[in-house]
Each structure stands twice: as structure tokens, then as C-alpha cells.
Design goal:
Elements lengths: L5 E7 L2 E8 L2 H39 L5 H22 L1
Antiparallel strand pairs: 1-2
């Protein structure tokens, strides 16, 4: 199917300015798919950054107990939730 997007242009001096863009259904679906994928990629990146930022807590705990058992359990559980969410988004 050929794209049927339309856009009115206005010329001001040597500059062409697009106005009143009307997006065809095909382009709208493609745009929404790109936006959805970008949101997923952003969330995956956020979760991976969280995991990277808490790696030191896990390593430190394995070397010497710096956290209480309850605090460490919270960190481990939160990291697991992040891993599960990453896997869901990547599936």
C-alpha cells in the first residue's frame, strides 16, 4: 500500500515550513510500533542500569556482611524483579 500522508507547506523567505501534517493509517501504525519499541528499549536500559548500579552491593555482601539479612533480601528481590521484567520485555 502506498503512503497517503499529506502535509501543507508554507514558504517564508528561503525556508519551507511544513504545517498540518495528516498521517496515513499505515504510517501511524509504523510510528506507534517504533514508539512502543523505544519505550521497551528505554525500560530495559533503565533496568540494566539498576542492576549494574547494585552489583557492588551484592559483591560487597559476599566479601563481608555489610547489610542485615533483611536488607540484603530486599536488594536481591528487587534485582530479581528487574531481571524478570527485562526478560518479559525482550520476549
Amino acid at each position: 500500500m502506498a503512503c497517503t500522508c499529506t502535509e501543507d507547506f508554507e514558504i517564508i523567505g528561503n525556508t519551507i515550513i511544513g504545517r498540518n501534517k495528516v498521517e496515513c493509517q499505515e504510517c501511524e501504525i509504523a510510528r506507534l510500533a517504533r514508539e512502543t519499541q523505544k519505550a521497551k528499549d528505554d525500560e530495559i536500559l533503565e533496568k540494566k542500569q539498576y542492576l549494574a548500579s547494585t552489583d557492588y552491593v551484592v559483591l560487597r555482601q559476599s566479601e563481608q556482611a555489610t547489610l542485615s539479612a533483611e536488607d540484603y533480601a530486599v536488594v536481591v528481590a528487587a534485582r530479581q524483579v528487574a531481571r524478570v521484567r527485562i526478560n518479559e520485555l525482550q520476549a
